Amino acid sequence: MYIGVDVGTTKITLGFVSENGEASFPSNLPMNRAQTTDSLILDLIYMIKTIAETVPLALYNFKLMGIGIGVPGLIDKNSGTLISSPNIGWKNVQLKETLERHFTVPVVVENDSAATALAELELGALQGTKNSVFINLGAGIGAGVIIDGKLYRGNKGRTTELGHTIIGENFYDCNCGKNGCLETFISTTALVNYTKKLIEEGNTTSILDQAKGDISKLDAKTVMEGAKNGDATALMAFERFIKYLGIGISNVVNTFDPELIAIGGELSQYGDFIINRLKEKIQFDNNLSNVKDTRIVKAKLVNHAGLIGAGLLCKYFAE
Ligand SMILES: [Zn+2]
Q1: Which residues pair with 13 in a beta bridge?
Q2: Which of 140, 148, 223, 227 is most exposed by smallest CB count within 10 Å?
């Protein structure tokens, strides 16, 4: 049995994960951005201790074999350090070293999308594939790559920074400080920012009614629903999103030649809508002709995919 820890932008989810990838006793720790990283890590240690000491009575033959952590950011897989995470504001956090000082089991740290890819490989959409890619569409863009049936972890751990590959100039800078990152074209934030820009430029739209006329309250869900309902401005934003998603996927195909790409994350609730439009585009856009032989599907694991993947990291990578 492992403990999986999934660090998100709004909360940290942790719980037990069996060797078969079954999650149990999940609990949440709110991600308080006002709190310092050190005090949040102390809270996390306390929570791991609490669940490790109290819950096992309910689990048959419990033995903790490791702690796996998925974090949205750049990691050094060898030292288990989170180098930087622009979206949660953490920098140089020695997660592995700190947690191994408190617990007598190995700790494995990985990018959260890579951990989710591992869960999808074991139990979800990537199951049975040899070469495949999981792409997370959320407030940030992450990815996990499977090569020869195994999670690819690269040399140091920079394999999943698909969101920060530069694909063109954009009208605002990325959280990482660069301009033109894929993340600023196809994340939920990107979708909202571009829609706001269109509205500010004078395009009329009915979707502002959902946000009670307050442009600052626009969210990705409202834009996606607007696009589904045929709102012209929301559709313009959606079409731009599809264009750059296609470019991002085309780059992934040119780099890894995967048999399958699974799309997950917050926007995957609109997975059919997104994938259907994307497939139409691939059919008729010569620039995307390299994508034609790659299957594109929705990710399968809806609940606790990040948590399960984090736990399973220990099964394959604990040292
Ligand atoms: Zn970036």
Answers
A1: 6, 28
A2: 148
Give the residue carrying structure tokens 């191994």. Answer: 100
- CA 221 to ligand 1 center in whole angstroms: 23
pLDDT digit string, tens, across residues 50-107 = 888 877 666 666 788 999 999 988 899 889 999 988 778 888 999 999 999 999 899 9
CA torsion angle for 48, 49, 52, 54 (degrees, to 10)? Answer: -120
- Beta-carbon neighbour count of residue 27 at 10 Å? 13
Q: How far is the CA of 188 from the centre of ligand 1 (A)?
A: 14
Name the DSSP class of 2. Answer: E
The CA–CA distances, whole Å, from 39 to 43, 122, 184, 252, 264 equal 6, 34, 31, 38, 31
CA of 176 to the centre of ligand 1 (A): 4
Distance 85 CA to ligand 1 centre (A): 10
Q: 18 is written with which tokens?
A: 């069996």
Strands 90-93 and 107-111: unpaired
With tokens 């994307």, the residue in question is 278
Within 8 A by CB and 6+ apart from 132, the residues are 121, 126, 145, 146, 258, 259, 260, 261, 262
- State residue 290 phi and psi, 5-degree precision: -70, -15
pLDDT, tens digit, for every residue of 188-238?
A: 999 999 999 999 999 999 998 877 888 999 999 999 999 999 999 999 999
In degrees, rounded to 5, the angle at the alpha carbon of residue 43 between the alpha carbons of residues 116 and 69 is 20
Å from CA of 113 to ligand 1 middle:
16
Q: How far, in Å, CA of 112 to CA of 240, rounded? A: 26
